[in-house]
């Protein structure tokens, strides 16, 4: 490459000598991206049920708090009833007629593992926001990872 008096190379000759290098750089970059993707995707798929479990546990916690808030604001008893066979739960409004406020069916990767200390698998809120019985709901996923939701007598709902 010819260099001028200031020590800077002449760009014309530089590009003439390296005409195919840009295409080669692009192919190498694409190859690296494909290699990293093939390594990372199986790990992401294995971790995905854990993400779904965390999201489902947060949604259940939010729905329990929603039923609690409805009971306080409407001064009508609301309850959350769990169906272990179908892996779903319902928010019900107990009045002269029972009304279904919301029904949630869990995704196939998530199931209700265990419910403890709740009679008939129900969380019943009183007008002050407390519950008739404290208990625990345990969700699990296909990786056998658990998420525990504690319901305190005061109505405090804690996700662990």
Question: Mind explaining what this structure looks like?
Answer:
The chain has about 160 residues and is an alpha+beta fold. It has a single domain, classed as minor pseudopilin epsh fold (3-Layer(bab) Sandwich). Helix content is about 40%, strand content about 30%. The strands form 2 sheets. A 4-stranded antiparallel beta sheet has the order 3-2-1-5, covered by helices on one side. The longest helix is centred in the first third of the chain and has 54 residues, at about 20-75.
Spell out the blueprint of helices and strands.
Blueprint: H1 11-17, H2 21-74, E1 77-83, E2 88-94, E3 99-105, E4 110-116, E5 122-124, E6 135-141, E7 146-151, E8 157-159
Antiparallel strand pairs: 1-2, 1-5, 2-3, 4-6, 6-7, 7-8
What's the quick description here?
The chain has two helices and eight strands, in the order ααββββββββ.
Q: What number of domains?
A: 1
Q: How much helix, percentage-wise, in residues?
A: 25-40%
Report strand %: 25-35%
The CATH topology assignment is minor pseudopilin epsh fold
Number of strands: 8
Q: Record the strand order, biggest sheet.
A: 3-2-1-5
* Count, helices: 2
Broad shape: elongated
CATH C-level label = Alpha Beta
- What's the average pLDDT? 89
Major beta sheet, specifics? 4 strands, antiparallel
Structural class: alpha+beta
């Amino acid at each position: 490459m010819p260099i001028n008096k200031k020590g800077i190379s002449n760009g014309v000759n530089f590009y003439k000598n390296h005409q195919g290098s840009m295409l080669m750089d692009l192919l190498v970059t694409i190859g690296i991206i494909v290699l990293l993707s093939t390594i990372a995707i199986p790990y992401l798929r294995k971790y995905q049920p854990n993400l779904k479990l965390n999201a489902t546990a947060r949604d259940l916690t939010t729905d329990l708090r929603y039923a609690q808030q409805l009971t306080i604001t409407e001064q009508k008893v609301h309850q959350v009833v769990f169906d272990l066979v179908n892996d779903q739960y319902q928010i019900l409004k107990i009045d002269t007629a029972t009304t279904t406020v919301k029904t949630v069916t869990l995704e196939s990767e998530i199931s209700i593992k265990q419910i403890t200390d709740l009679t008939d698998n129900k969380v019943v809120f009183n007008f002050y926001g407390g519950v008739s019985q404290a208990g625990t709901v345990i969700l699990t996923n296909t990786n056998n990872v658990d998420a525990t939701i504690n319901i305190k007598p005061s109505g405090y709902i804690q996700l662990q």
